C-alpha cells in the first residue's frame, strides 16, 4: 500500500476544537437548539445481566445467588455473582456447572402445545417447545416507563431489549434555570446582550455522582474523581453533573421498585454515552466530560466503535494501516471522503467525539409481529403442522394482547404463514385477519390452520423445516378508539344473548365487507410516526367508496414515506438509511454509492 496517510503522526487536541465552546445566554435561553446545543447531555442506561436479573426477580432470589439463563444448551445471560466463578456466555452449561457447583441454571420460558401461556416446564425439548422472551419484553417495558415517568420533558429511545438512550438536555435546562436563577435573565449591563457569555459556573461536587473519566494529566497525577474544585469546570460540566444526579435517582428508583441494577454512561452525545456506559459495571454510572474526550478516545481501537466494527472498519484499517482512533485522526476529511464518499463525514466526526444523531423515541408501533420456529425435526405429515401453529398462535396472542394494553385499537390487517423446506425459499399464504372482539389463541390458530391447508395444498407429505406466523399491517385503527368500541358494543348487544358461549372466539365480521361506511369516513388521515404530523387527504380525495379512499390514503402514506426517505438520504451521516419495503432500483443505486456499500448485505 502506498498511501500517504499512514496515520502514525501524533494527533493534537486541535482536532477537538469544540470541547470548550463559549456558552452564551442565547444558548441557554433558546428553546430548541437540537443536536447542536452546546449544553446537550445524553445518557445510555443498560440493565446488568438482564435476562438473569429478570429470572432472579421472578423467583424472588437473593441478588448474591449465582444464576444463569440458558436456551437449550447455551448460556444467554450470566449474573454478576456467577461471573465471579469465571463463567461467561461462551461457556456450555456443563462447563459452567463445573466452575460453580451451586450455579442455578434457569431455562428460558417456552411455549408448548396446548398451553396458552409460556411456562417453565421440566420436559423442555427444542423438538416440541419454542422459546418465549415475553417476560423480558414486559420487564423491559416497565423500566422504559420509569424513565419516561421520571423525565416528562426528556426524550427516551429504546435501543435494545435492555438499553435506552435518554436525552437529558431539557430536564437539565429546567434545573439549571431553577437552581441558578441569576443566569435566567440577561443582565442589563451584559456587553453583548443575549450573546454575552454566561458568568463562570459554580464549583461542582462530583461525589456520589458516579465515575468521572479524567483527562490523562489529572488521572496520572493520582487525583480522585471528586477533585472538582479545579476552577476549570464549564457550564457543560454543570449540565453533566445535573444529568448524573437525575440518572442516579432514576436508577435507584428502578432498583428499589423493580429490583434491577443498571449501568449508565453520561456524555454530550449518544455515541459517547454508549461508549462509556460499560466503563464500569455493574450498578454504576460513568461521566465523560468534554475535556476528557480526547484522551479517552485516542487509545481506543476504532474497530470497537459501533458502525466501525464491520467491513468499513476493516477497510479503514487496511487503507491507512492503523488501529486506534488516535492513528486515524491524521487522515483529513477530504481524504476520507474521497475514498469513502461524502457520507463518510460521520466517520470523521465520530473519531472526534462528535455525533449529531438525535435521541428519538421510535414508534412503539411495529408494523408486524412475528413468531417463528426452526424445526429440529422437519414436519413430514401435514397434520403435524397443527401443533406448531398452536404454539406460534399462543405467542402472537400474548404479544398482541400485551401491546393492546397501551394501544387498545391496535389491529392486524393480515395474518401470514410462511413455511420453508430446507434451504429453499419460503412459501407463504396470507389472509385478512378476522375482526373479533378478543384475539385468542383459537382465533389465530383457526385462521392459520386455513393458511396451512392452502400452503400444503393437500399434499400427502411435506418436508417443512421452518414455520413462521406473523401479523402484518399492524395499526392503531384509524377509526379511533371510540368508533371501534362503539362498533363492538352494538355488535355485542346483538350477539351476547344469542351466542354467549362462543362469542370470544368467534370472528364477528370481516372489516372489508361489513363495516359501516361511516367508520371509513374518518380514515382520511394518518399520523406519521416519524414527524408526528397528521397527513390528510384533500377533501376531494376523501370522497367515494371506502376502498377507493383507503387506496388513496395508502398512496399518500407511501408518498409521505418517500419524502422521509429522501430527507434521510440527504441528511444521512451514517449511510444506513432505512430502506422502505418495495424500494425502487433508483434508490438502490443511490445507496450503493460511497460508504453505503460497506453496510449493504450482499
Ligand atoms: N442476549 C442473548 N444473546 C446474546 C446476547 C444477549 O440472548 N448473544 C440477551 C440476554 C441478555 C440481554 O440480551 O441478558 C442483554 O444483553 P447484554 O449484552 O446487555 O448482556 P447482559 O445484560 O446479560 O449483561 P451486561 O451486564 O454485560 O449488560
Ligand atoms: Ca445489559
TrEMBL record:
Alphabetically ordered keywords of this record: DNA damage, DNA repair, Metal-binding, Nucleus, Transferase, Zinc, Zinc-finger
InterPro entries xref list: DNA/RNA_pol_sf, DNA_pol_Y-fam_lit_finger_sf, DNA_pol_Y-fam_little_finger, DNA_polymerase_eta, Rev_trsase/Diguanyl_cyclase, UBZ3, UmuC
Main location: nucleus
Intracellular or extracellular location(s): Nucleus
GO cellular component: nucleus; replication fork; site of double-strand break
Domain UmuC, chain residue ranges per copy: 42-309
Domain UBZ3-type residue range list: 521-572
Pfam family, one: POLH-Rev1_HhH
GO molecular function: damaged DNA binding; DNA-directed DNA polymerase activity; zinc ion binding
BP-aspect Gene Ontology terms: DNA repair; error-free translesion synthesis; error-prone translesion synthesis; mitotic sister chromatid cohesion; response to radiation
Keyword Zinc-finger tagged: yes
Entry protein name: DNA polymerase eta
Organism name: Suillus subaureus
Amino acid at each position: 500500500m502506498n498511501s500517504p496517510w499512514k496515520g502514525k503522526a501524533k494527533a493534537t487536541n486541535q482536532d477537538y476544537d469544540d470541547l470548550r465552546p463559549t456558552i452564551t445566554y442565547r444558548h441557554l435561553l433558546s428553546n430548541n437548539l437540537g443536536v447542536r446545543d452546546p449544553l446537550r447531555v445524553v445518557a445510555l442506561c443498560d440493565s446488568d445481566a438482564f435476562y438473569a436479573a429478570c429470572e432472579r426477580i421472578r423467583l424472588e432470589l437473593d441478588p448474591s445467588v449465582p444464576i444463569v439463563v440458558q436456551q437449550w444448551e447455551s448460556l444467554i445471560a450470566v449474573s454478576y455473582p456467577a461471573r465471579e466463578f469465571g463463567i461467561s456466555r461462551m461457556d456450555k452449561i456443563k462447563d459452567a456447572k463445573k466452575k460453580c457447583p451451586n450455579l442455578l441454571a434457569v431455562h428460558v420460558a417456552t411455549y408448548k402445545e396446548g398451553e396458552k401461556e409460556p411456562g417453565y416446564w421440566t420436559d423442555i425439548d427444542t423438538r416440541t417447545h419454542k422459546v418465549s422472551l415475553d417476560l423480558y419484553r414486559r420487564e423491559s417495558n416497565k423500566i422504559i416507563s420509569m424513565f419516561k415517568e421520571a423525565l416528562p420533558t426528556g426524550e427516551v429511545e429504546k435501543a435494545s431489549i435492555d438499553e435506552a438512550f435518554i436525552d437529558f438536555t431539557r430536564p437539565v435546562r429546567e434545573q439549571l434555570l431553577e437552581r441558578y436563577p441569576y443566569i435566567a435573565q440577561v443582565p442589563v449591563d451584559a456587553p453583548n446582550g443575549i450573546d454575552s457569555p454566561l458568568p463562570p459556573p459554580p464549583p461542582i461536587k462530583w461525589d456520589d455522582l458516579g465515575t468521572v473519566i479524567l483527562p490523562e494529566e489529572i488521572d496520572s497525577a493520582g487525583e480522585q474523581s471528586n477533585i472538582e474544585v479545579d476552577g476549570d469546570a464549564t457550564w457543560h460540566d454543570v449540565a453533566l453533573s445535573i444529568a448524573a444526579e437525575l440518572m442516579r435517582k432514576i436508577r435507584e428508583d428502578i432498583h428499589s421498585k423493580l429490583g434491577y441494577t443498571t449501568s449508565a454512561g453520561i456524555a454530550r452525545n449518544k455515541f459517547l454515552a454508549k461508549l462509556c456506559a460499560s466503563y464500569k459495571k455493574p450498578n454504576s454510572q460513568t461521566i465523560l466530560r468534554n475535556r476528557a474526550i480526547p484522551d479517552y478516545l485516542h487509545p481506543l481501537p476504532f474497530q470497537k466503535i459501533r458502525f466501525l466494527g464491520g467491513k468499513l472498519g476493516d477497510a479503514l484499517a487496511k487503507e491507512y494501516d492503523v488501529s486506534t482512533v488516535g492513528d486515524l485522526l491524521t487522515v483529513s476529511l477530504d481524504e476520507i471522503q474521497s475514498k469513502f464518499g461524502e457520507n463518510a463525514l460521520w466517520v470523521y466526526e465520530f473519531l472526534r467525539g462528535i455525533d449529531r444523531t438525535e435521541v428519538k423515541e421510535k414508534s412503539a408501533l411495529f408494523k408486524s409481529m412475528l413468531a417463528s420456529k426452526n424445526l429440529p425435526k422437519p414436519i413430514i405429515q401435514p397434520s403435524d403442522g397443527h401443533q406448531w401453529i398452536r404454539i406460534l398462535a399462543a405467542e402472537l396472542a400474548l404479544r398482541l394482547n400485551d401491546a393492546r394494553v397501551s394501544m387498545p385499537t391496535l389491529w392486524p390487517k393480515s395474518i401470514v404463514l410462511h413455511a420453508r423446506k430446507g434451504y429453499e425459499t419460503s412459501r407463504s399464504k396470507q389472509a385478512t385477519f378476522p375482526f373479533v372482539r378478543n384475539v385468542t389463541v383459537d382465533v389465530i390458530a383457526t385462521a392459520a390452520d386455513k393458511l396451512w391447508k392452502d400452503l400444503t395444498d393437500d399434499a400427502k407429505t411435506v418436508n417443512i423445516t421452518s414455520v413462521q406466523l406473523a401479523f402484518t399491517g399492524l395499526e392503531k385503527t384509524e377509526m379511533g378508539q371510540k368508533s371501534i368500541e362503539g362498533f363492538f358494543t352494538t355488535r355485542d348487544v346483538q350477539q351476547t344473548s344469542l351466542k354467549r358461549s362462543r362469542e370470544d372466539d368467534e370472528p364477528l365480521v370481516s372489516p372489508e365487507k361489513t363495516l359501516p361506511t361511516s367508520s371509513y369516513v374518518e380514515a382520511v388521515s394518518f399520523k406519521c410516526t416519524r414527524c408526528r404530523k397528521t397527513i390528510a387527504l384533500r377533501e376531494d380525495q376523501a370522497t367515494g367508496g371506502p376502498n377507493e379512499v383507503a387506496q388513496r390514503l395508502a398512496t399518500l402514506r407511501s408518498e409521505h414515506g418517500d419524502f422521509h426517505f429522501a430527507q434521510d438520504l440527504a441528511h444521512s451521516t451514517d449511510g444506513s438509511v432505512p430502506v422502505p419495503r418495495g424500494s425502487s432500483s433508483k434508490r438502490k443505486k443511490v445507496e450503493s454509492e460511497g460508504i453505503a456499500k460497506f453496510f449493504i448485505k450482499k
